[in-house]
Amino acid sequence: MPQMTLRDIAYALGLSVSTVSKALRDSYEISKDTKERVIAYARTNHYLPNRMAKSLKEGKSGSIGVVVCSIDNSFVSRMLDGIDGVCAQAGYDIVIMQSKESLVQEKSCLKQLEARGVEGILISPSAETIGFEHLLALRETGMPIVLFDRISERFESDQVGIDNYHAAFQATEHLLANRYRRIAMLNIGLDIPFARLRSAGYLDALKKKHLTYGKQLIRPCWPDTGETLKDRVRASIQSLFELAEPPDALFTATDQLSTLSLSVLHEMGHRIPEDIALIGFSNTELADVLTPPLSTIYQPALEIGRLAAEKLIGLISGRGLSEEYETVILPAQLHIRDSSRPGVKVQVNG
């Protein structure tokens, strides 16, 4: 069956080709009723616009670039779902690239996206991205850029993320309320803005209870060359249990650190929460069926993706242009499950 054209839609609805084209582009020249008729007919009959022809005629690619650290975790996948839904509805394709937490790779991704002619870029910066000179240079070419998830005060732009400080403070307070006192933290490095805020929230919750902390309880988990993240998590947890006073609870600052810590603790034979409580950032839908069910700080990943995409499309269309950039901060939710309930230490006499 030949692909439906604008002319076919125009003939079927008794409209001009120009009117149909403008209706599908949401032109202000076309009435709401006509737009709805055209869109409904196009959707029912599976009309697909000729992207290449549109690009050549309008000088636009109809695509948006998305750079993430990795797509192999549920949190990033949900953000991408949110981005894709908004972009598809607005008529944009998305081109997804992974930095693999490397600044060099991130710069390469951006160059490739620019070469492809994307109309805007959504980026969640890599763990190695401390400076933002490369993004500033790209924006100076006229490229709209929106940061999402890993937001930073070091780069002025429209951004969408969560209240990292409060989320970490809340999680640590929960552990303290359950009478845990030696609370360790696994983080990915304090140079990263969101990680620094999560560390600050953790430390301030301890200070509120007048608890001193030893730096040995905070472990940066960034793999060395030839080492996997799980290797680093395993080494960090092992060293924590080798302390003269091991921790009685563990707070993990990212989705991957949370699930890897649960796995490593099981492999090492530690009972949760009897030997050590566990809580962390995670968006896994399996949290309820893990052993034990995992207490988590749940981030509204889908909404982060949606809002970031909406902001970028607004910038591309000119609707979001203003003298000041806006940072949208969404609340995270604390989901309490068995992994952080008050543990009962088994006393062994002999």
Helix and strand layout, with pairings?
Blueprint: H1 6-13, H2 17-24, H3 32-44, H4 51-58, E1 63-68, H5 74-89, E2 93-98, H6 103-116, E3 121-123, H7 133-139, E4 145-148, E5 158-162, H8 164-177, E6 183-187, H9 193-208, E7 218-220, H10 229-241, E8 249-252, H11 255-267, E9 277-281, E10 295-298, H12 301-317, E11 327-330, E12 333-335
Task: Describe this entry's structure for a reader.
Strand 8, helix 11 and strand 9 (277-281) form a beta-alpha-beta unit. The chain has helices spanning 6-13, 17-24, 32-44, 51-58, 74-89, 103-116, 133-139, 164-177, 193-208, 229-241, 255-267, 301-317, and strands at 63-68, 93-98, 121-123, 145-148, 158-162, 183-187, 218-220, 249-252, 277-281, 295-298, 327-330, 333-335. It folds into three domains: 6-49, no CATH class; 60-162 and 301-330, Rossmann fold (3-Layer(aba) Sandwich); 164-299 and 335-340, Response regulator (Rossmann fold, 3-Layer(aba) Sandwich). The protein has a six-stranded parallel sheet, with helices on both faces. Helix 2 packs across helix 3 (32-44) and helix 8 runs parallel beside helix 9. The protein starts with 5 loop residues before the first helix and ends in a 15-residue tail after the last strand. It is α/β, with parallel strands linked by helices and 350 residues long.
